Amino acid sequence: MKTRLTCIFSVLLTLFLFAGSLRYVRDHWLFSFTYSFQLHIGIVGALAAIVLFAALRSRYLLFLFVWAIAITAHAAVLRYEFVAPASENVAGQPFKLISFNVLGENYRNGKSIAEFLSNSGADVIYVMEGRPLAPYLSRIAKTYPYRMGCRVDTETCDLLVFSKYPLEGAKFITLSDLRRDRMAVARVTVQDTTINLVALHVTKPYYDDYHEEELFAASRIIRALKGPLIVGGDFNSSSIAPDMLRFQRVNKLHVANFEPATWPIEAGKFGIPIDHIYARAPATMTSLKRLSDAMGSNHFGLEAEFIIQK
Q: 52 with 6: CB under 8 angstroms?
């Protein structure tokens, strides 16, 4: 009986690891959800192989263990690929940005979120699903007098950008026919240093090919921007997904450290990072951390600090 159960679980573990390895077979949107969980699948698979091997000494289980370790190691390497080298004593203009999907139905916490953002000390804030903040825009404007979104540059209240500095060349861009105005582009000038800002809210990766197509459309615009660049928002996918890797490589983006998990909030630090902030030189990200309180959202927000070199 023990042998039969172990064999059954070995077959299930094989299918589980195959799901975590689909990126090596074919990059297709049907499998996209598993790409972001590759690290988790590998770790769980390795632990399961150890348990099964304790019950039944089998070379096949050793093979499954090695397989699990291999995809875990590759996922870890991919997550560190875009971590910038330590940047101590870099001279330039300091800059702070917050990116936060506040959840479109989170009206109960709209006021507290508005208060938090107003007192955050950030230079610029990206907000996704920002409808709960609509009643409090005048309050936020006392600290952040410049805004994109919610009847400024667009009628939609999904994507908003709040800034302490004038937003130059501000415009919204529709990346696909699924949803409009999900990319915001602008420039701010701080102490004679001009910074390109890009905020994104990308469609979920299992909605046909929209995720990949939207990233491709965003890249065409980003590559045309000259000078320091900060990109952030809700990408609905981990940085190790194949289309996200292409997006980072093509646009020469980096992060400051191992990206913190932002979703689901119930998983805490064991979740996956689907919200991101990236930088491109001569903007150097010096720190990246998760906001401690989700404030009713199903995402944790992110806070990043930069040094903008002239």
A: yes
pLDDT tens, 165-209?
Answer: 999 999 999 999 888 999 999 999 998 899 999 999 999 887 778
pLDDT confidence of residue 1:
61
> Where do we find the tokens 């409090």?
136
Helices 242-251 and 210-222, packing angle to 10 deg: 0
Contacts of residue 69, defined as CB under 8 A and 6 or more positions apart, other chains included, come to 42, 46
Rounded Cα distance, 215 and 183, in Å: 10
Question: Residue 272 gets which letter from DSSP?
Answer: B
Instruction: Name residues whose C-beta falls within 8 Å of residue 224's C-beta, 6 or more positions apart in sequence.
Output: none
In three-state secondary structure terms, 250 is helix
**Which DSSP symbol is given to 21?**
T
Cα separations in angstroms, 196 against 151, 256, 305: 22, 18, 15
- What is the DSSP annotation of 72-90? HHHHHHHHHTTBPPP-TT-
Query: How far is Cα of residue 155 from the mean position of the Cα atoms in its chain?
Result: 25
Average pLDDT, the chain: 90
Query: In Å, how far from its chain's centre is CA 14?
Result: 29
Alpha-carbon span 253 to 230, nearest angstrom: 9
In contact, 35 and 42? CB cutoff 8 Å: no
pTM (predicted TM-score): 0.91
Token pair 């348990």: residue: 51
Residue 208, helix vs strand vs coil: coil
The whole-angstrom separation of Cα 97 and Cα 162 is 10
Helix (H) or strand (E) holding 139: helix 137-141
